Amino acid sequence: MTKNIELTGRPVISSTGLFTPEETITNEELVESFNAYVERFNAQNAQAIDAGEMEPLQTSSVEFIEKASGIKARHVMAKEPILDPEIMAPRWPERSNEDLSILAEIGMKAARQALERAGRDAADVDAVLCAASNMERPYPAMAIEIQRELGIDGFGFDMNVACSSATFGIQTAADYVRSGNARSVLVVSPEITSGHLNWRDRDSHFIFGDVATAVLVEDAAMAPDEHWDILGTRLKTVFSNNIRNNFGFLNRASPEGQGKADKLFVQEGRKVFKEVVPMVAEMIVTEADKLGLNPRGLRRLWLHQANAGMNRLIAQRVLGHEASADESPTVLDTYANTSSAGSIIAFHKHNEDLAEGDIGLICSFGAGYSAGAVFVRKMA
């Protein structure tokens, strides 16, 4: 229905979509499971611990989790096996190659919601970018599977920039629109982060949750009346080992690699905090200046939902004062860290109350290091 419109080459966000798993794990449930594992581990290794050959594991607590992160609960795709002290990892029946894969399934649900909210038909979409931290296979691309299921005649590919995948995907989609290579692009971020989390590590067992988001980036000429102009974007990467996951086909197959902690999510949390906060704040302020925007005048910040303390300090450096919940809303308390989807969830849930002309920022940051900023203005 939009084949003959005159394109402007000006990219906008037309809509977003969100899929949230039904199952939730509270901190209380998580701590009960973790501490049961700790007690069992210490009992099984009591002789070595008493001999000083092994350090006993320390129990976790609700207070520790909330002070360290601000997280109170998380949604997951497989609650029961995660809470089983004998398993402590997600499990679901393996699907055949002919069945829809689980990442495509949840990504498609978020994508369909985004299309519906924009009043858009799949025939009008030219491309699908699957931008996420953890793909379930190297190929065929998850994006192409989602493209097929939605009935989109165009192209698709996967991209991974860890927690910044969605914002990198938005800039990539915006560049396609600017160049005229696409009119409408879906950026889909299915994040089953529970699969790469070490649920037996006290320092990180509480961090992640599962979700899927979608962002529809289009030429302004075909966007609905209410949309968000993309004023500018900025991407930045700086190599660091402080957040790392060594799982991969080259190193997971070796016998000595099986069960190693670094095949799951590992991080040096204090170093990440110290190095990422100033890097991200400087990137935001610098890019705002280039765009002729006053960073202290930003109406709302939709920041990456990884750590409440990091968001508080970044927002303070950008706005020049302690941000209110209205200025920098959080979904971290109920969703936990959902990697690249976090800032998109915050945007999806907290943007309808803004007035026409209000300017905000979608910003992500994480492993790599990687950081992405998308400045947007509400149009209605």
Would you give an account of this structure?
It is a single chain. The protein is of the alpha+beta class. It has a domain at 228-379: Peroxisomal Thiolase, Chain A, domain 1 (3-Layer(aba) Sandwich), CATH 3.40.47.10. Helices cover 32% and strands 22% of the residues. The chain has eleven helices and 13 strands. A nine-stranded mixed beta sheet has the order 5-4-6-7-1-8-13-12-11, with helices on both faces. The protein has a two-stranded antiparallel ribbon with strand order 2-3. Strands 9-10 form a two-stranded antiparallel ribbon. The protein is globular.
Strand % is 15-25%
Structural class: alpha+beta
The termini sit apart by: 22 Å
Tally of separate helices: 11
Looking at the structure, what is the overall shape? Answer: globular
The gist of it:
The protein is of the alpha+beta class and 380 residues long. Helix content is 32%, strand content 22%.
Secondary structure blueprint with pairings:
Blueprint: E1 11-19, E2 23-26, H1 27-44, H2 46-50, H3 62-69, E3 73-76, H4 79-83, H5 102-118, E4 127-131, H6 142-150, E5 155-159, H7 165-179, E6 184-192, E7 210-219, E8 227-237, E9 243-244, E10 266-267, H8 269-290, E11 300-303, H9 308-319, H10 332-335, H11 342-349, E12 359-366, E13 370-379
Parallel strand pairs: 4-5, 4-6, 11-12
Antiparallel strand pairs: 1-7, 1-8, 2-3, 6-7, 8-13, 9-10, 12-13
Which features would summarize this protein structure in a list?
single chain; 380 residues; alpha+beta; Peroxisomal Thiolase, Chain A, domain 1; 9-stranded mixed β-sheet; two-stranded antiparallel sheet; 11 helices
